[in-house]
Amino acid sequence: MEDDEDTFVTIGTPLEFIDEDDPIKKPQKELQAVGVGTKARPRFHGAFTGGFSAGYFNTVGSKDGFTPSSFTSSKEKKNEFSTQRPEDFMDEEDFAEHGIAPRKFQTSDSFVSEDRKRQRDQAIKSATADTLLGSTTALADLIVPERLTIGVKLLRKMGWKEGQGLGPRYEKKAKSGKSSKDSQRKVYGCSLPQEMSEESDEEIPENVTFAPKDVNPVKIGAKDNVHGIGYRGLDPRKALPATHVSLFPAPAITKTGKKGIRGTAFGVGALEEDDEDVYSQDHLSNYDMTMDIEEDIHMGWTAPGRGKKQAVPVGYVGNLLEGFTLSGKKLPPRKIFPPPHLPSNYKPLHTFRKEDTAPVSHTNTEQDAVSRGLTLGETPVFESVFDLIPQKDKERLNAAKSRAEGTIDVQSSSNTEKSSSDSHIHTSQTSVSSAVPAMESTAGTQSSPMATAGSQPSPMATTKEPSKLGTLQSPHTSRAAVFSPFVKDPEKQRRYDQYISLVKEGNPDAYEHVAGSHMTEWEREREMEEFSKAARFYKPMTSMMASRFTRAKFHDDEDKVEMPAQEEGNKNDRQSAAKMKMYGTLTRDSYEWHPDRVVCKRFNIPDPYPGSTITGVPKVKRDKYSVFNFLNFSSNEPIEEKSVSQDSEMKALPAPETKQDKAESVSFKITAKSHPKMTTSIFSSLNEEKPKGSSSENVQKEEEARPSMDLFEAIFGNTDSEDSEEDTPKATSNISNSPPATLSQASNKRSSESPTTDITETRDQSSNLDKGHHHSGRSNSEKNKNRSESDKSGSKERTSANPTTSIFSHLFQEPQKEEVSLLPGAPVAIETLEMRLSGENRVEDSFGPELPPVMKESAGGSLKGNGIMQPEHQKSYDEGRGEKDRHRERKKEKYRDKEKGQHKDKHRHRSRSRGDRERDSSDRHKKHKHTKSKKSKHKKKHKKEKKSHKKEKQTVSYSSSDADSESDSDSPVSNQELLQRWRSLTKEGKL
Amino acid sequence: MLPEKLIYEISCKQGALRAVRFNSDGNYCLTCGSDKSIKLWNPHRNLLLKNYQVHAYEVLDAQASCDNSQICSCGMDKYVCATDVGTGKILRKYRGHAGTVNCVKYNENSSVILSGSTDNSVRIWDCKSRKLEPLQILDEAKDSVTSIQVSDHEILTGSADGYFRRYDLRTGRMHADFLGKAVSSVSFTKDGQCVLASTLDDSIKLMDKETGEMLNEFTGHKNHDYKIDSALNCEDTHVISGSEDGLVYYWDLVEAKIVHKLNHGTSRAIHSLSHHPEQICLLTASGDKMFVWKDKYAQSQDT
Question: What is the C-alpha to C-alpha distance for residues A92 and A104, in angstroms, rounded to an integer?
C-alpha cells in the first residue's frame, strides 16, 4: 500500500474525513477562537495585530484580558515600581513587527555555524597537538584564538601561506647539504629507507625557490601522568650498555635553553640499593613468568616446529625441554641405608631415670604447700621473718652470730632438728639444712619455729639423696641460689651459683669468671644467656616485693626537708645582690605561670597555654610542712651585721623575708658594739662560753629574756607538763638527779624535760652547782645534732646575755618588751611573716588606733575608775604630735612585741584593776622597774648590751609619757593562752 | 607644674583614713575609713556625695570600676565587696581570704577584682558570673601582699617578702624580682615599661619591667614601717610618695632629685595618695583628713 501511495501525487489538501459517528462539532464562535502565533501556542492577546483573542471570553484571567497586577511591598522586599511597557502586552513574535528590539542575548550566526566549528576544531588540533583532553574544552577555547589574528591576516596579505615558514625564500641548494650529510652517516644493521628520496630524486629547476620550513608551533601538552615536572623518560641509548648497538638514529632532542633539574629521575630513595631506573617502562609481559613450555595457543597445532617434537619414550612422564634430548644412560641408583638394627631387648617404652622420678612417685601421699614448693624448686613463699631481711643484714647478723658462737649452722641446726623431729624418721643433717637452706643463713637458733615447720614434711626431705642435695649452695650464698634451675647438672649448678653471687656483688662480667675453660665459645654464650635468664626469673621474694615499693624520700620524723632547689638556689646571691642594688638577673626569678582560662577570658587575652590543666606556677613538689621550713638553719649562712648606728637609730624593721632571710632578720638586732664576736652559725652559739653574770641583775635579765616555756612546749610537743609553776621544784630535783645519759637514750627525755630544767637553771642562777649539769647538757647537745634540742639550749644560752643569736631567741624574747601602740589614724603598718611568726595576728595592734600614752593615762584613769573599755576605733586617734620619739621607738619594738601585744589586749579587755595587774606581773615587773631605775646610769655609760639598751629606750619613752599603765602589760603571759594562740596559728597554716 | 597649693583640707569624719583613691576619670574620689565606711566625694568641690557601709571592719582599700557603676573594696573583715554606686547595696561579697585584705583592684574592663591579702595570696574574683569562688589564687608570695596593680595583660603585686611579682598573662610567665625589703607599693609607669616600687628601707625604686634592673632610686623620704603609697604624676615626669614625716615628696623621675615637698602641717605619716589621671591634682590622706592639692593658680571653688 505504501509503495502505491508513493507513486501518486496528491494535489491540494485532502478533505477531512468525517466520521459519521462523531458528534457534530459546534462551529467556533469568533470570540472563542484562540489566536495561535508562529510558535503554535495560543497567542497572548493579539491586541496589536488585530487578533482580538483577548477579552472577556478569551480571557487571560479576567474580564480585562490580563491579570491585574497586585501591589505588595514589605520591609525586606520593596516593591519596584515598574512602568508598564507595551511589550508586556505583546507576544514575542510581534516585537519585530513593531520595531521593538529583542532584549535577549544570543550568539550570532557567525559563531554557531557549522563551518566555523569545523575550522575551529582544526585550529585546536593543530595548536594542542591532540594532547588536550578533547578539542572543545574550555581550555582550548582560551588558547585558540577565535578568529584569525591580525598577524596572520597581514602575513597572508604579504603572500604567506599556512604551512610555510617565515622568512625569505631560498634556493634548493641549501637543502641538499643535509642529505649529503645523511649519506655519510654510518648505518648499522639494515639501512633505513632513504629519507626524502623524492626530493633528492626530483630535478629542481633553477629558478624555483622554496619557502623556509614552518616552525613547529609551541606544543601545549597536557600533563596526564604522575611524573614530576620536567621528567622525561630515560633515553634508551644512555640507559643501555655502551656496547649495545643502536638500531635507530637518535631521536631529535629539542634543546631548551632552560636550566633546572631535568633528565631522568632525580635519584633514588635512601633505601634503594642500586641506582635502578625507577621510571623505565618495563612491563611484566616482557618476561616469561613460567618455566614450562608455553603451548602456542595462537598457532594451534600447526605451529611451526611443532611437528619436530621428539618422540617421548613410552614410560616418560613430563615435557621435554626444547633442545634437549633424553639421555640413553641410566642414572646410578640411589644408595639406600638400612634402618638401624634394634637390639633384641628393646622395648618401645621410655622409662625415666630413677633419680628423677623418685620424689614424685613417693611423695604424693601427704604434701603441704611448703614441701610441694620445695619439690618443684620454687622459692618458699616465706619460711621465717628472717627471710625478709636483706642480704646485707643477714650477713651482718651472721657475722655477729659467728662472733658469738664461733661455729654456726651445722651444730645448731642439727640440734634444732633433733629437738623438733624426734618422732620423725631419722633425717640426715645435710638434708634438713638443704631443705630449708635459708633458715640457717638467717636464723640459727632463733628460727627454730620455722625450722620445725620446715622439717615437718620430712618424708619428702628424707627421700632426697644427700649427694644431690649437697650440690646446693651453702647457706651463705644468696637465696636466688636456693632454687637451682640446673640441678641435673651439678657442675653447671655450681657455676650458676657462683655466677649469681658474682652478679650480686655487682660484677659486670660475672659469667666470664665462672665459665669453664673446657667449654666452647658457643656453649659459653648459650650458658651465659641461660644464666642471665634464670637469674632474672628466679628472683627472691624480697626483691620482688621491693620492686613494688619505693623508698620514702625522708623519714617521717626527720625535721629537715629539702626545699626545691629552684627556690633556694641563689638566695644568698640574691640577698647580696639586692643589697648592692644590683638588681636584674640576679634578683629575678622567672617561672612558667598558667593563668586560669576564665581569667584569660576576662582579660580578653588568648590563653598562653591552651589545653593546660594546671593553673598557677607548676609546682615541682610540695614541701613537707614544717615550721622549720620558714627558718633557715643552714650554718654556712653568714649572719649579716647590720650597720646600725651606736645610738638608738637601729633598723627597726628588718625586711620581712622569706625563709632564708629569716636568719638575717633574726640577727638584725645585733649591734656591732654589743657583739664583738660574730658567730657564723647558729649552733656555734652552743660552743660559746656562757658569760657568767654574777650580779643578780644579770640573772634577772636572763630570766627576762627567757622564752616562755609554753612556747617550747607548743613547739616541741610536750603537752604533759601543763603547769610550769608547779614543775619547777621538781625540775630542779630532776636536774640534780639525772645526770645526762647517753644521748641516744636521753634525747627523748631531754626534749620533754629540758624546758623545765632550763627554767630552773635560770631561776637558780645563784647556785653554781647546776653549772656543771648545764655544761654537760650543752656538750651533749653539741654532740647530738638534734635540732630542737640544740635550739633549745641555744636559746637558753642566749638568754644569759650571750651575744650570739639563735632562731628562737628573737621570737621568744618578745614578751617582756613594751607594747607601743600605734598612732591613731596611722597608716597601715605592714604586717610581715616575721610578725606573724612571732606569735599572733595582732590585727588590733597594728591597725586599730589606740590611745596614745598621754591619752591613755587620762582615759586609762577613767578606765580604771569605771572599768569600761572603750571600743578601740572610737578612741581618739589624735595623738600628741611630739611623739616622734615614741613613734620611732614603736618602730623598733613593734615587731618584737607581738605576744606581749596580744597579751596586753587581753589584759585590757579584762580591764583588771591595776592592783591585780601588779600582783600578776610579780618579779618580772619588778625587775623591769629595776632596769628603769638604772636607766640614767646606763645612759651615761655605753649601752653595753642590746637588750638592756632597748629596755632602756623603752623606759625612757614611757617615762616621758608616764605610761606606766603600759608596762602593766609586762605581766607574764598566761601559758595556756599562749599555747592556744600558737596552736591556732599553726592550725591556720599561717606558718 | 606641680600641685603645690592646698585647696581643701577635708576632715572626712570616718576615723582614720586608710586610703584615698580617685576614680577612673578623676572627677570623684573614694576614701576608706577605719570606721568601716567608704565615702564618695567630689574633691574638686569639697562635696560629700555618699557614704557606703559595706564592711564589718576597717576598710583598707577601694576602687571604682571603669564605668563608675561599682566600687570594690576590701578590709580587715577579710571580705572583698563589690558595691553598687547608686544604691549603695552590696552586689557581691567575696569571702575566701584568710586574713586582712590589704589591697583591691579592678582589671581594666572591670570584669574581675583582684585582691591581695595578708594571707600571702592574691585572689582573682569574677564579677561577671555569680561565682563566689575565686577564679584563681596567686599564692606565690611568701608574705603579705601589700599592693596590686593591673594593666591590660599584667598583674603586678608587691609583697612584704621583698618581691614584686609580675604575672604576664600574654606570655604566661611570672617574674619575681627581689628588692631586699618589704615592698609596700607598686605601680606601673604610664608607658608600661617600668615599675615603681616602694620598699621599707626609705627608698623607691624605678625598675625596668623586662630586665628587672634598677633604673633609678628615689630616696630622702621616710618609709620604714608603713604601707605608704607612691605614685607617678599624670605625665610620668615626677615620682610622688608619702612619707612618715608628714610630707609628700616629689622627685624628678630622671634626675631622682627631690624637687618639692608638700607640707601637710602634721607629723603623721602621709600614707595614702592618689594622683589625678589627667590634671594636676593630688589627693593625700593623713590621719582623718584628706588633702586636695592643685597647682598654684587653681582656685578653690567654694570660696
Answer: 11
